[in-house]
Design brief:
two-stranded antiparallel sheet; alpha/beta; 29% helix; binds adenosine monophosphate; 181 residues
Length: 181
């Protein structure tokens, strides 16, 4: 669901603080650097509060964060929602039995994994990451959560790059982004 109302002052301040880094990590990519937001105590708290506020009362059992910038946001949002935190990691990083999903990247494929016992059947999971670009990572993460028997109660991003149309890959899930470009 895209929120129709105007962004509030805090969201505008967060958007202003995100730094564009041209040609990183390679030529032609404009990298959205969120570190100026993270290092500012007021903006960091505002960011976590804004994300958590939208899901308060939705009975979220777990917040799943995608390595690595998704972790930074997912753990405090989980705390704010009195939910647990589940890491979704690059392949080979998690020590116990995992589910794995592959997704296409520019050249070849990438894989992410989640522990098979990350949560129980029917638990309500909020998926959280920093940036929605082409949607390949998030759609693989959704498959992981559903494979493990979780219900995707929401998919949230700090930043959505509208022009890449990643949202189209996420089906009819409740998709929310705090700021858009
Ligand atoms: P995608 O699978 O194309 O939606 O890419 C999403 C993942 O790549 C996220 O985990 C982001 O952290 C990262 N990412 C993609 N594009 C950018 C960008 N322009 N700036 C910062 N991070 C990005």
């Amino acid at each position: 669901m895209s929120e129709k109302k105007e962004p509030n002052g805090m969201i505008l301040r967060i958007k202003k603080a995100v730094r564009d880094v041209p040609d990183f990590p390679k030529k032609g990519i404009v990298f959205k650097d969120i570190t100026p937001v993270l290092r500012d105590p007021t903006l960091l708290k505002g960011l976590v509060d804004e994300l958590a506020r939208r899901y308060a009362g939705l009975k979220i059992d777990y917040v799943a964060g995608i390595e690595s910038r998704g972790f930074i946001l997912a753990a405090p949002v989980a705390t704010a929602l009195s939910a647990g935190f589940v890491p979704i990691r690059k392949k080979g990083k998690l020590p116990c039995e995992t589910y794995r999903e592959d997704f296409k990247v520019e050249y070849g494929t990438d894989s992410i994994e989640m522990h098979k016992d990350a949560f129980g059947l029917g638990n309500r999971v909020l998926l959280l990451d920093d940036v929605l670009a082409t949607g390949g990572t998030a759609s693989a993460a959704i498959r992981l959560i559903e494979k493990a028997g979780g219900r995707v109660a929401g998919v949230a991003f700090m930043i959505e790059l509208n022009f890449l149309e990643g949202r189209a890959k996420l089906g009819d899930r409740d998709v929310y982004s705090l700021i858009q470009y």
